[in-house]
Write a structure and sequence with these properties.
The chain is α+β, with helices and mostly antiparallel strands and 190 residues long. It has helices spanning 3-20, 25-32, 36-44, 51-61, 65-69; strands spanning 84-86, 89-93, 102-108, 118-119, 123-128, 132-137, 140-145, 149-153, 158-162, 168-174, 182-183. Helix 1 (3-20) packs across helix 3 (36-44). It is elongated and about 70 Å long.
Length: 190
């Protein structure tokens, strides 16, 4: 669908949405601050839609901007990404878009490791699938089992991995700030 075709469909969609909600042009004008004549020209296709006009209308109707514009269907929603192996862990990306919230399914193999707490901006959420996940968060050292979840401020030094008893699968969710990790220096042992 071309841009002109998308824009041509906005006016009729706006009129239909307003009528379905039984809202008059005058009431919509009052709610949006857009003149009745501008709204009428927009609905009849005599005025091209702009963000400046569509955002207040979307707010007034309490709908996403996509509903006003009529974005095409998203297509196949399945995420088909290849596993990534980092530091012995296998990560399956569950999101396609870069930036924003990122989700991963992670397989941590059976191994014993010395925790190396790290910090970064943001929040992280973990959900354990099969297995047991050791989580070191600040002064806490806990083991999460299947079905348990944890969320924490990632500015607190943290580490998570296998308990050494077996492999563990878990889901990890974090925002783009989670990509900038910093190793916290360990105190020297006397």
């Amino acid at each position: 669908m071309t841009t002109d075709e998308v824009l041509a469909g906005v006016g009729p969609r706006l009129r239909q949405m307003r009528k379905d909600r039984e809202v008059t042009l005058a009431a919509l004008s009052e709610a949006t601050g857009i003149s009745v004549s501008t709204l009428s020209r927009l609905e009849s296709g005599l005025r091209k839609p702009s963000l400046e006009l569509l955002l207040p209308i979307a707010r007034a109707h309490q709908v996403a901007l996509d509903e006003l514009v009529g974005t095409p269907s998203a297509g196949d929603p399945r995420v088909r990404s290849k596993p990534i192996v980092m530091g012995g862990r296998t990560h399956w990306p569950l999101t396609r878009q870069p930036g924003g919230l990122q989700a991963y399914k992670v397989l941590e193999p059976k191994r014993r490791q010395e925790p190396e707490p790290r910090t970064h901006e943001g929040y992280e959420w973990l959900y354990v699938l099969p297995g047991k996940l050791r989580v070191v968060l600040g002064e806490h050292d806990v083991v999460l089992t299947a079905g348990e979840a944890a969320e924490f401020d990632t500015r607190v030094p943290h580490w998570f991995g296998s308990t050494g008893e077996g492999p563990v699968e878990f889901l990890s969710l974090f925002g783009p700030q989670g990509e900038r990790m910093h190793v916290r220096a360990r105190p020297k042992r006397a």
